[in-house]
Amino acid sequence: MCLSFPGKIVEINENLASVDYGQEGVRKNINISLVQANLGNYVIVQGGFAIRLLTEEEAMEILNEWKIIHDLSSEGA
Asked: Domain range for residue 64?
């Protein structure tokens, strides 16, 4: 099973983009040739490729859910 987190496109150079995952400055370079992405879009990335565009609201909802899961798992540790 693979897990994907939303990231925000902060730089584009042809079919490559830099995605900011918003956690401790984590940025990754990805391929955006499968989607019609623009600067500032949120994307889901799988295997180094953006596979889906997200609205900001969708991205924030997913990130909030992951935060809840993280916080719950930290309580039991």
From this structure: 6-75
- Say if 1 falls within a structural domain: no
pTM here is 0.85
Give the model confidence (pLDDT) of 8-60 as tens digits.
999 999 999 999 998 778 899 999 999 999 999 999 999 999 999 999 999 99
Whichever domain contains 36, its CATH number is 2.30.30.140
**CA-to-CA dists, residue 45 to 18, 54, 73, 75, angstroms:** 11, 11, 24, 29
Task: Tell me the C-alpha distance between 12 and 58, whole Å.
Answer: 22
Domain count, the chain: 1
